Known about the structure:
By secondary structure, the protein is an alpha+beta fold. It is built from 2 helices and 14 strands, in the order ααββββββββββββββ. The radius of gyration is 29 Å and the shape is elongated.
Amino acid sequence: MSPRKRLMAGVSLIELMVSLVIGSLLIIGAVTVYMQSRNTYRTNESAARLQETARYALDVIEPDVRMAGYWGLTNRPEYVENRALPTETAQAVATGVTNDCGTNWTVDAAHYLDGRDHNGIGYDLDCGGIDPAAGADVLIVRRASSNTTVATNNRFQIQSNRIRGVVFKNGAIPAGFPAAPASETHDLVVNAYYVSNPGGGARFSLRRQQLSGNAVQDEEIIEGVQDLQVQFGIDTNGDNNADQYVSTEAVPAGAQIVSARIWLMAVAPDIEVGFVDGTDYAYANAAPGTFADNRRRLVVSKTIQIRNSTL
């Protein structure tokens, strides 16, 4: 064959097959790397979202719980007038609350931390026809707002000095209180945190019943919270430290609550194909067990000291 014809010759079948095999291996390798990178990204994104959900929920609950039992210039609930007393069936100051959550629920200053255990024992959250998710606790916080305000009609407020406090809602500062700064006006803050699971499906969210002015309103805090568990730290020897932690309904009468321990379970909104969660969940006094729905979950906990628990 002449040199010219050799230059014009194409590749052989064997060379073509070798080229196709090499090219296919390169493509398969590139696709494999891409799929692994995508799966890793999705896993990291899901884990980060769970952490973000849990962190945000705790960031909302923590400052509220930390201020529980704050009544302005006094932290002694027994010095607060127009508060709920165990023997009373109603308080004049508590009438006219739209969507109230039970008798004296708004003004029950004696129970600055309260709740209902997941077994249904404890404070009955009877407001707005809500139905907390089965297996989750309810946490109730009562306190005064951290900032002072002005007396406003149809808004639950508390006027306090170093000796006593009075709950009122008619916009008129109760008699016997000197001008600021010897006494202060604060809004009354009452929040009930619970987990919602409408229809019993896979959509969970952390919500709260919140006293707003003269009415109790429901609002969503964040989606993706499947469980809330609470235990209260009680002081049994008068040193203002928690000697034991008990569930919300097991606080002895007259016990001083000095801290709260919160557990939250965050759940991914989407199914992750191929993911198997082998964890047998158990925390607080609850045991959700295992889940087989291919969703990632994260349990976080935090112990919160109450600033105004010292008597």
